């Protein structure tokens, strides 16, 4: 772990040093991209530049035409980019490429040449790039490469390792049978947005590993029956927006995803999809389909997602149309206005896995008890834009968690029967002519969290005097915007005590004490006034981890909301507000008929000028009548929050300094650790040597060399012979000189009898 940490820190420092040390060429900016390499973004590129760095990613996009960009012989290798793995050269007015421009780039893996002016490419241009897997030539005019008289008609490109090829928007009108002859490893081909009308049946034969083919936005009117007989791995085929009206006799057994949207299908016969037994996702939206044979989908037993929206289906559908689709999960029937109704007895047999059903704008007038029978797993039901007036008991499953009934003709909620113990979480009733609601209407939907009642005809929030009902204790979102509600009071919150977002905009609310008390209560509870306010509050909490409660209350949008109602700038919440008692405010009653058409009000809160017409001032103190709603901005309910400009300079500087301090501390720690480690090892070595020497001295046998001088006699002081003199000879003196010295009285003690003689030394006693 320690070595890994040291290695990571050193790698980071070396990378930063290299990037800053000046080997990045002029007109380029080099940055590290983690452990994957260095990224270079250049605004110009030629063979005079030198890249001394280990560049892994080179971005030459959007180079101006005036720079005259040219890719000459081995240009990338010559400028030091031999280890490059990804090159992006898009939208740079490139017209031609030398056949050897990419030679020597053995690590090149991705190449993007889209949105240039390339007309012809040498087929063997990339033969040397043995690791190239992804190539994009999108939006280049390459039509001349797929004509019979082209010098490159033998094969399109020779890239032995290519997997993904993007040729979308290349003005191709024909595909030659030899096009993919040298691209046998390709698994994905994008030929969308060309002018292809004819495809020879041998075209895709060499692509044995082809898995995904996109032919959308072309002019293909038919497919050969044996066109994909060699493509046993193909999984996805996109034919969107082609004049294709039939797939009869076409067989692709491995196909799982088929997109036929915006084609020309008018009927679906029993043999249309016989050749697709493993189909999982089928998109038939935006055709002109009027009828579907009851056996059309029976061969697709693995079908999970079916989209039949935006057609001309005439209902009801056959009750056994999905009898074999036991794995079907999502069914989209939206915008088939002639369908009118579901099968009266519901769909037959095993149709139980579906959880998503969209029947919006299908001309439905009502739902019978058995219409949705056997849909035991249904969770999301979309019925908006119909003409439904009532829903009988037993129609809705208690397992539904999302129900959209907006834009229908429901006038009374008691005509919509919610099952007992309903799991409903979200309910849309917007755009219905509902004039009143009661908490009793939601007794069976105790788990409801989001309720949309905007653009109805409500004149008051609750039509009840029953205070014991508490059916909406989990409701957190309520939208009653654009109704006809004139008055609200704190009592209206008794049934929605835990609401977090309450949208009231677009109502002719009166500026009275009850309304002010309600807004004060909503502010204290930190209830958001719009979706945008709630989202902003959530983002602030997510980014900062905590939000200042005082500032949050000012940014909930209620103050601005009340300013539009009362037409005057004032603070409704008493949270350390300044005293503006000395400021002058114009009294509307003092305005005479001779006054000018425009007057200027100076609101005390921010002293910004507000210009009003005389007609607008007339209802400031008396409330806002219905016709005054035109003065309200349309997007008040979208973003009533007063946005403040935040300076992020200091936080950025603090973050940078903190990161630098952490890196510096890590480096100091590593240095101290290495120094301590060396000192510890040195101490151990010295101690080991000392211990070795001591052991050698203790246990080595002592002896006397016979050639050495006689063992000297040891002298000791003797107080009794203080006056005696002794003549002795120094054993280290080579001359015959004798030295007479007056010495202390001594006793004759020999070394041989000393306790320190080697024969008397015992190692354990030392």
From TrEMBL:
UniProt keyword annotation of Metal-binding present: no
Leader sequence segment: 1-21
Gene3D superfamilies: Ribonuclease Inhibitor (3.80.10.10)
Span list, region Disordered: 718-744
Residues annotated as transmembrane: 648-674
InterPro entries according to UniProt: Leu-rich_rpt (IPR001611), Leu-rich_rpt_typical-subtyp (IPR003591), LRR_dom_sf (IPR032675)
SMART domains assigned to the protein according to its UniProt record, in alphabetical order: LRR_SD22, LRR_TYP
PROSITE patterns: LRR
SUPFAM superfamilies in the record: L domain-like (SSF52058)
UniProt keywords, alphabetically: Leucine-rich repeat, Membrane, Repeat, Signal, Transmembrane, Transmembrane helix
Name of this protein: Insulin-like growth factor-binding protein complex acid labile chain
Organism from which the protein derives: Zootermopsis nevadensis (Dampwood termite)
Source taxonomy: Eukaryota, Metazoa, Ecdysozoa, Arthropoda, Hexapoda
